[in-house]
Design a protein that fits this description.
globular; UDP-N-acetylmuramoyl-L-alanine:D-glutamate ligase; Carbohydrate kinase; Carboh/pur_kinase_PfkB_CS; Ribokinase-like; 24% strand; PfkB_dom; 9-stranded mixed β-sheet
Length: 319
């Protein structure tokens, strides 16, 4: 039996443009990906978010069919959160064509009383002030994870500092982390995140994987570098980072309450990496929603085999 897990962030509608194809009006939002990924491990996942009157009912049904509890999702008149993004030949890079986030900016976050004692809280990427409101309404959470994005580094850096200081685990993608830390390397950026109060920092690096940083027993920096699962065809990376976060949180929810060890974090990073690879194989969350325990475990076995280091060490000749 896992710990109950609360996921907050956006649920919305995406339009995705890539060099090969496009998809219009598909399921998007950080919660949509993170919560489904968390449900691979966790017995109970509740969502706290907001949607508009135009949100398609079949997307609600798809999320509910995976087991996501949506009693904490508010419904409001007007349009849902929507995002249009364009990817280029280098799919690690994208630009926002347009976004309608008025429903999110106006949202006064309310966590229902029945959900406030969930021990694991996942604050997906959204306005830092709203992340803080959620944290304040869930003061007893024994494990808090957070994510952010570039525009909040520039618009609300002081609130982002507060979010990270209240997070046990925080993550950003590589470009964002370097900008936030004014750093030239991933390790500098990760250590800066740790200096802001997080116990663990994760720097997401797209097709190059992720880097986990923490502190060793003597205060030294502990590092784990995890490569991405190699894909022959990359369809759409939207939501891969949210999937990564959700799978990590879902796995950690299966552990005893409290802060996980560095070794358990490493396992969670691996599970998140494998889960994220499914998201990249389709537009929207289609591949993630259709993933099964069997397909996940098969890919996990392949991934472990790819990354396994042979036992023993070659003898180095002394000069």
């Amino acid at each position: 039996m896992s710990q109950p897990l609360l996921v907050t962030g956006t649920i919305g509608i995406d339009t995705i443009l890539t060099p090969r194809d496009r998809a219009e009006g598909v399921l998007g939002g950080s919660v949509s990906f993170a919560a489904v990924a968390a449900l691979m491990f966790a017995d109970r996942v509740d969502a706290v978010s907001i949607i508009g009157e135009d949100f398609p009912s079949h997307y609600e049904e798809a999320l509910a069919a995976k087991g996501l509890r949506m009693d904490g999702v508010e419904r409001k008149k007007g349009p849902s959160f929507s995002w249009t993004g364009e990817y280029f030949d280098n799919m690690n890079k994208r630009r926002t064509v347009c976004a309608n986030d008025s429903v999110m900016l106006e949202w006064n976050v309310h966590v229902p009383e029945a959900l406030r004692n969930h021990p694991v809280l996942v604050c997906c990427c959204m306005v830092p002030a709203q992340q803080l409101k959620c944290m304040e309404q869930c003061p007893d959470a024994s494990l808090v994870l957070s994510d952010s994005m570039d525009k909040w580094l520039r618009r609300q850096p002081e609130l982002l500092d507060a979010v990270i200081s209240r997070s046990h685990i925080t993550m950003m993608n590589e470009d964002e982390a370097r900008e936030y830390a004014h750093a030239s390397t991933v390790l500098e950026a990760g250590e800066f995140l740790l200096s802001k109060g997080a116990v663990y920092a994760v720097v997401k690096q797209g097709e190059y994987g992720a880097t986990l940083l923490g502190r060793g027993p003597e205060g030294e920096t502990a590092i784990f570098r995890c490569p991405a699962y190699p894909l022959k065809t990359l369809v759409d990376p939207t939501g891969a980072g949210d999937t990564f976060l959700g799978a990590l949180a879902g796995y950690l929810a299966t552990l005893p309450p409290g802060l996980p060890s560095f070794e358990e974090m490493k396992k969670g990073i691996i599970y998140g990496t494998v889960a994220a690879s499914f998201t990249c194989e389709s537009f929207s969350a289609d591949a993630l929603l259709s993933m099964t325990a069997q397909t996940f475990c098969k890919r996990l076995e392949e991934y472990v085999a790819m990354c396994r280091i042979p036992s023993g060490c070659v003898s180095i000749r002394e000069n």
